[in-house]
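Worked problem 6 (solution included).
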Amino acid sequence: MSISQNSVTAPRFPEAKQLVGEGNWQEYKREVVLAVQSRSLMGYLDGTIAKPLPTTSASPGSYGGTIYPAIAATPFYSAIPHFEEWITCDTITTSIIVTNIIDLLVSKYKKCNEQKIHIVDMALRKEVYDPEVSMEDHEMKMRNLLKKLHNASGTCSNSQFPLIVIASMPKEWKLDLYLDKKGEVEEEERETKKIKALLAKNPMAFALVMQSTTADTVEVNVVDTNLEPSELYLLAAEADNADGGKVLLF
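Solution. The predicted structure is:
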């Protein structure tokens, strides 16, 4: 098969005739057909030239020493090309099609993919346990939804998925208790950070709180500490929680 450089190179259509969507489909289609016809590749576009089986040439000495002649190349426009020739022509035809699809179309389908991710993600998060099915079946269904989300390029971390599964359970299964407990832990962490900040803000208050852990009662003058009463009460409560003495404010 003799192939010219012009036949191998996929032409670039004028911008107005590159495929953007349904609005200019006819113009784009006309350009594709003309480009393919001018290269004698129409049979690859309409599928009338079937893909042949792979061919192999025997080496000298094979099959009892018989030497088989090399396979002769067919014309570029042949309707019965050899396997390698068919691959070449089919690839050229494909290049003509995809090279002239404008980026706006890619952006459009990317947006559609984002919508698909949103739909699959919502399906996973809104799934509710059916008491009539086994827990194993429910978990399998949740994992299948998770797999669909990942296949659509969505994200759900290993720490998020168990929480989504728990949220799918009936409330009578003590879900509220779990969430309340989680809220209590978070509240304690916030209080601890606040207390550390107050102690760092006023060394005197820090010394008084530390003194309360060794003495039965420590009296603290609110004015001397330069702290707000609400802040001192918080420190006093911290001293009580530490199994120390009492901090009396006056």
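Discussion: The chain has a mean pLDDT of 75.
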